[in-house]
Amino acid sequence: QVQLVESGGGSVQAGGSLRLSCAATGYLFSSYCMGWFRQAPGKEREGVAAIDSDGSTSYADSVKGRFTISQDKAKNTLYLRMNSLKPEDTAMYYCAIDRDCRWYEPYWGQGTQVTVSL
Q1: Mean pLDDT score, 7-22
Q2: Do residues 40 and 27 make contact, with C-beta atoms less than 8 angstroms apart?
Q3: Is 21 helix (H, G, I), strand (E, B) or coil?
Q4: What pLDDT is recorded for position 28?
Q5: Quick check: 4 and 107 in contact, CB under 8 A?
Q6: What are phi and psi of 89, to 5 degrees?
Q7: Which of the residues 22, 72, 84, 111 has an alpha carbon 20 to 30 A from that of 97?
Q8: Distance (Å) of CA 38 to CA 62, 64, 118
Q9: Are the C-beta atoms of residues 88 and 63 closer than 8 Å to each other?
Q10: Residues in contact with 15: Cβ distance below 8 Å, sequence separation at least 6, in sequence order
């Protein structure tokens, strides 16, 4: 059974930083794509950043240059370093894993809240 457990969310002031973590267990495929998505109240879930098993990364335009996705394969953990946070980054952040980055049938974590205030 695949389980994704996020942590690291919280409340920060604009310009601050946070690092999200996602511990993955039970995923048996050597080829995968892991990513971070977010959903703000009243808005659709959107992709933030992704990394595949080869280490290739992609980012939403809104976070390029501010967020960095990384993984520790030995720990089966995904990270999202978020710098220069803005109020518009406020959302519930979800970790996901799938066979590839087309996200046809991803597994989801329960989410961690990030709140950025002025």
Answers
A1: 98
A2: no
A3: strand
A4: 78
A5: yes
A6: -85, -5
A7: 84
A8: 12, 15, 20
A9: no
A10: 84, 85
User: Model confidence over 16-75: pLDDT tens digits?
Assistant: 999 999 999 998 788 999 999 999 999 999 999 999 999 999 999 999 999 999 999 999
Full 3-state SS string of 33-96: EEEEEEECCCCCCEEEEEEECCCCEEECCCCCCCEEEEEEHHHCEEEEEECCCCHHHCEEEEEE
**pLDDT of 101 over the 90 cut:** yes
Q: Band of the pLDDT at 94, cuts 50, 70, 90?
A: very high
- Torsions phi, psi of 60, nearest 5? -70, 145
Tokens 């990384």, residue located: 70
Angle at 10 between CA 36 and CA 72, to 5 degrees: 45
Integer Cα distance of 81 and 70 in angstroms: 8
Residue 51's pLDDT is what?
97
